[in-house]
Write a sequence for this structure.
């Protein structure tokens, strides 16, 4: 019987079983509602902070301090207070919800400990970033949004460069893949792509998530490919090779830099619109602050959050293109379409493989698993055809 890519694709997807597919569909739809819930929580936090006048009183007490210190402390206080006020939602969103669908086995105490570290780091880094934004507003006036886009690019590049070195090791243990056939295969692949051996690592991703995953992070000397221990435990050797080929594709094709460029564009547009909308939204919440006042940061962040939801389809579209390119790279260089399909089927447990075209366009950061498996099967069909023609 001739090889039929459509039939083989359906076989891979259906192998999950109707119960698992329904659970994946329910989980995926629920994550969409989680996004809306997050916006509602952000609006509530904005209302609490504006109506309480906490930031205004803090700013007033710091009037005798230098402008930079006062601005940083007000911004730091905003990020810290907003995170603490919304902490119950954060625990549900990032842990309780995931736990209810079996996507995490992390103890609640460990999650909260790590989340508090995230809150502390994000408060400091957010305070520093918006200190820069408010400095640009003071110096450049109405063009602040343009310059702030450049600041966002610098911040994104710095975060990408430093995160593998300073941030990620706080939450996970990164180490070389253990000696054995898997390590030998991965290092051979790294050699073929010109990637140093010390940049192919495994990490204890099972600490936070039961998802089958791998990633590329960092740039220049900090760039690396990291594979979760979940993937290494659940996958066959060929599946690990196919997944690693995909991640090497991201590395070789420089997708990290594409993300930075998109962030610049989105940040500029977002800040431009926020500048135009600020006074109207501030009035809705009863705030007297102007866009250049640190006390108005809750309103500014609410606007940015709402605009971020509308920007999500654009960001997702760019990411989906990169994922398709990385899949194609793995198929060309590793040429294990069945292993690729098998590995992708494992991700369908937390990403419904058969979304509608609209659902995929708006919410999916990766092409649907069904599309990705079909491409792998189409590739296999092409190779079989070529082999038969010889």
């Amino acid at each position: 019987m001739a090889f039929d890519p459509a039939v083989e694709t359906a076989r891979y997807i259906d192998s999950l079983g109707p119960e698992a597919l329904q659970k994946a569909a329910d989980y995926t739809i629920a994550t969409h509602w989680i996004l809306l819930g997050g916006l509602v929580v952000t609006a509530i936090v904005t209302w609490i902070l504006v109506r309480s006048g906490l930031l205004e009183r803090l700013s007033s007490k710091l009037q005798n301090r230098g402008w930079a210190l006062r601005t940083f402390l007000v911004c730091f206080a905003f990020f810290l207070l907003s995170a603490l006020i919304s902490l119950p939602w954060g625990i549900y969103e990032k842990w309780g919800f995931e736990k209810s669908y079996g996507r995490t086995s992390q103890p609640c105490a460990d999650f909260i400990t790590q989340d508090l570290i995230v809150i502390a780091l994000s408060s400091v880094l957010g305070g520093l970033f918006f200190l820069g934004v408010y400095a640009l507003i003071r110096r450049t006036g109405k063009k602040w949004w343009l310059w702030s886009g450049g600041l966002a690019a610098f911040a994104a590049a710095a975060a990408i460069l430093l995160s593998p070195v300073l941030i990620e090791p706080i939450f996970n243990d990164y180490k070389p893949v253990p000696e054995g056939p898997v390590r030998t295969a991965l290092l051979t692949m790294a050699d073929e792509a010109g990637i140093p051996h010390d940049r192919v690592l495994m990490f204890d991703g099972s600490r936070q998530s039961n998802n089958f995953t791998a990633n590329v992070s960092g740039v220049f000397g900090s760039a690396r490919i990291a594979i979760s221990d979940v993937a290494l435990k659940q996958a066959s050797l060929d599946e690990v090779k196919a997944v690693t080929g995909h991640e090497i594709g991201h590395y070789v094709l420089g997708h990290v830099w594409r993300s930075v460029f998109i962030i610049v564009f989105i940040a500029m547009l977002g800040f431009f619109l926020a500048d135009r909308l600020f006074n109207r939204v501030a009035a809705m919440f009863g705030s007297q602050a102007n866009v250049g006042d640190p006390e108005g940061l809750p309103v500014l962040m609410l606007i940015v959050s709402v605009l971020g939801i509308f920007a999500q389809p654009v960001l997702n579209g760019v990411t989906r293109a990169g994922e398709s390119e990385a899949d194609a790279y793995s198929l060309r260089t590793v040429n294990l379409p069945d292993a690729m399909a098998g590995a992708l089927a494992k991700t369908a447990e937390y990403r419904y493989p058969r979304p509608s075209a609209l659902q995929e366009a708006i919410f999916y950061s990766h092409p649907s698993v069904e599309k990705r498996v079909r491409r792998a099967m189409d590739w296999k069909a092409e190779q079989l055809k070529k082999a038969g023609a010889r």
User: Anything to note?
Assistant: The mean pLDDT is 93. Residues 266 and 311 are 7 Å apart (CA to CA). The chain has 15 helices and four strands. The longest helix spans residues 297-333.
